[in-house]
Write a structure and sequence with these properties.
With about 325 residues, this protein is of the alpha/beta class. The protein is about 55% helix and about 15% strand. Bound molecules: 5-phosphoarabinonic acid (PA5).
Length: about 325
């Protein structure tokens, strides 16, 4: 657990690093397309939540090319994010973006994506290497936001980086409220498959991060859904197997003050209507002024929960052997 904990503790310094790097100058764009997978790709989802109030649409593409017809028509700035720089889907899409003549900026530690950016003379932010991508969120998101700033797609985010870094630094100190909350939730989730609910642009995107952190750190299944949509389908799903689901699953709800007013009522009513069949084991509210801090506050709690679940399961949170095996199988097929 300790190495991943050290990496998670690095979030504050990663955000400070992002505040200090130069934002590349890349014209003016109100339409952005972030492409990336997994631990890198989620930085696009986070950037979309931050950019939306600025009138910037950040679409997120997680997969291969080709560039979709809407993007050929609207010509967004493509921001290709890959920590390793060698993720085949991201490379494939970026080649298609290049061949289509779209403007591209790159966030990476190097690899083939870094080389392509140099050959094409694209704006590029080089990240410090040596981490698991999911533990480099501060670098990935920070750099993506600085790219958006350089494209006049968001305002200067440096004050937000400082507030978020201060929060992240305090949150990971032993005995902090965040640790206590994480311990309470991990305890309540013991022996259960987590289902994470969010209800707005910030809580929804972090619900996804909790799911993937639990998958990769604790090597456990987990799911996420968002309100109000889940009230139109998933809410009915607990009717037929309560004897299984009540002992097997546990819902954690994430909330943020950016959630629509009606979402709070929906959470209460949804819990009342479903909790006999699926226990609601915890609720976490965001903290902070800036959207970035609110994202980070919910994220750190989830990261710590995923570590505690890894500890409960007796697994090392760092390696993701199955992902590596799959990448090798695909590479072999290519030879
Ligand atoms: O967490 C992980 O290791 C994965 O989700 C990776 O982030 C994903 O496979 C993409 O790799 P990269 O982040 O190097 O582009």
């Amino acid at each position: 657990m300790s190495d991943m904990l050290t990496q998670i503790k690095g979030l504050a310094s990663q955000l400070r690093w992002a505040a200090e790097i130069d934002a590349p100058s890349i014209g003016t764009h109100s339409e952005v397309l972030c492409v990336g997978m997994g631990g890198s790709g989620i930085s696009g989802d986070y950037a979309a939540a931050i950019a939306e109030p600025f009138g910037t649409r950040v679409s997120v593409h997680k997969g291969y090319g080709p560039v979709p017809p809407w993007a050929i028509r609207l010509r967004p700035l493509v921001v290709a994010v890959s920590y390793s720089g060698n993720t085949e889907e991201t490379l494939d899409f970026t080649v298609s973006a290049r061949d289509t003549g779209l403007p591209v900026a790159v966030v990476t530690t190097g690899g083939r994506l870094g080389k392509m950016a140099e050959d094409e003379d694209w704006a590029k932010i080089d990240l410090p290497a040596g981490l698991q991508p999911r533990a480099a969120l501060g670098y990935l998101l920070g750099a993506a936001l600085r790219v958006l700033e350089g494209a006049h797609a968001v305002d200067d985010q440096r004050l937000a980086f400082v507030e978020a870094a201060e929060f992240a630094g305090r949150a990971v100190e032993e005995g902090s409220d965040t640790w206590k909350k994480a311990e309470e939730i991990a305890g309540a989730l013991s022996g259960r498959i987590p289902i994470i609910y969010g209800g707005g642009p910030i809580s929804g995107v972090v619900a996804q991060r909790w799911k993937t952190q639990i998958n990769e750190n604790a090597k456990m299944p987990a799911w996420w859904s968002v309100l109000p949509e889940l009230d139109h389908n998933e809410i009915t799903s607990w009717e037929t197997m309560p004897e299984v689901t009540k002992d097997l699953l546990g819902v954690v709800a994430l909330t943020d003050r950016g959630d629509h007013d009606r979402v709070a009522s929906r959470i209460d009513f949804t819990r009342d209507l479903t909790s006999d069949a699926v226990p609601w084991v915890g609720q976490v509210g965001s903290s902070g002024t800036f959207p970035l801090t609110r994202l980070v506050s919910l994220t750190v709690t989830g990261d710590l929960v995923s570590l505690l679940l890894a500890e409960q399961a007796g697994v090392d949170p760092v390696p993701v052997n199955t992902i590596e095996k799959l990448k090798k199988l695909l590479a072999k097929e290519d030879e």
